[in-house]
């Protein structure tokens, strides 16, 4: 099967684990500082990887257009949306903010259809219905008011959708490692400018070992995320890739259940609908191929 599907499926698993852990991290660290330091740690790892694999030479041969697109990926995906998202979440309901973020696959499909000429078939609309329904169930209850915070979360989500569309275009010519490095480098740079301008860098003085530990743990997951995501996105339609990412939600729910956090039947039903939606979009053959690949991976490791 196309290795892109397998890599993006791994991204979804990493995302589910990372979201579960990040809930603890952001509870003890300023979210802007938390995001910037994670990006910085991943940037160090990616830079080391580029040097080790001699990919660094590729940067010297990039055209002005390629540099412009890589900077755009860092600005549109690695910095601005994080600032908008966390600001929005501080003003509104976190569950509803999370739901808005999970609608990103819709905007990606729209952008990919017009700018990348990706075909959207009937299966996508059926799967999209199941995905929206599943994520609505995760909300527990729907209460929406016209708060500015919701607009900020939506804007952040649309920025991420635009970044994924741009990244898919850039990946036609560049490797996933180069795109991932650019996102982290320019993303960290623009967030640093924001922290400097808002006088928040002084918060670094009060860091303790517990906070450092959470940054290191989540940075490892973020490194795995960007490596598998951009590696897989190069080979499959971005509209399908963002749908597969939603598999992370059932993973987070399962971890919450295992570690004793309150999970009700509605959560498991939501997870089932999300998985059903992913299968509907990908098709049974592609899904069975993913399962086979995962079984093979588990067999090799044991």
UniProtKB/TrEMBL annotation:
The keyword ATP-binding does not apply. SUPFAM superfamilies: Multidrug resistance efflux transporter EmrE (SSF103481). InterPro entries: AA-Vitamin_Transporters, EamA_dom, EmrE-like. Its main location: membrane. Coiled coil: none annotated. The keyword 4Fe-4S does not apply. Keywords: Cell membrane, Membrane, Transmembrane, Transmembrane helix. GO terms for cellular component: plasma membrane. Residues 3-139, 148-281 form the EamA domain. It is found in: Cell membrane. The chain crosses the membrane at residues 7-26, 32-53, 65-86, 98-116, 123-142, 148-166, 178-198, 210-230, 242-259, 265-284. It is a multi-pass membrane protein. This is EamA domain-containing protein. It comes from Candidatus Nealsonbacteria bacterium RBG_13_36_15. The lineage of its organism: Bacteria, Candidatus Nealsoniibacteriota.
């Amino acid at each position: 099967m196309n290795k892109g599907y397998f890599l993006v499926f791994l991204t979804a698993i990493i995302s589910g684990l990372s979201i579960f852990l990040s809930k603890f991290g952001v509870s003890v660290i300023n979210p802007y500082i938390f995001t910037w330091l994670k990006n910085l740690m991943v940037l160090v790892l990616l830079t080391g990887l580029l040097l080790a694999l001699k990919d660094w030479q590729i940067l010297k041969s990039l055209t002005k257009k390629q540099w412009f697109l890589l900077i755009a990926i860092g600005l549109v995906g690695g910095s601005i949306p994080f600032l908008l998202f966390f600001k929005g979440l501080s003003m509104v309901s976190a569950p509803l903010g999370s739901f808005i973020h999970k609608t990103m696959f819709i905007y990606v499909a729209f952008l990919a259809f017009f700018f990348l000429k990706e075909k959207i078939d009937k299966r996508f609309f059926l799967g999209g219905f199941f995905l929206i329904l599943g994520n609505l169930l995760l909300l527990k209850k729907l209460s929406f008011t016209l708060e500015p915070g919701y607009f900020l979360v939506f804007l952040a989500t649309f920025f991420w959708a635009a970044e994924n569309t741009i990244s898919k275009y850039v990946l036609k010519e560049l490797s996933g490692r180069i795109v991932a490095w650019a996102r982290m480098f320019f993303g960290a740079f623009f967030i640093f400018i924001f922290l400097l301008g808002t006088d928040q860098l002084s918060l670094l003085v009060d860091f303790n070992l517990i906070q450092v530990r959470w940054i290191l743990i989540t940075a490892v997951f973020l490194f795995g995320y960007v490596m598998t995501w951009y590696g897989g996105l190069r080979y499959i339609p971005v509209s399908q890739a963002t749908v597969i990412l939603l598999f992370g939600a059932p993973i987070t729910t399962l971890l919450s259940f295992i570690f004793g956090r309150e999970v009700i039947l509605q959560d498991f039903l939501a997870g089932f609908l999300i998985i059903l939606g992913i299968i509907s979009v990908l098709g049974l053959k592609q899904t069975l191929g993913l399962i086979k690949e995962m079984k093979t991976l588990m067999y090799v490791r044991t």
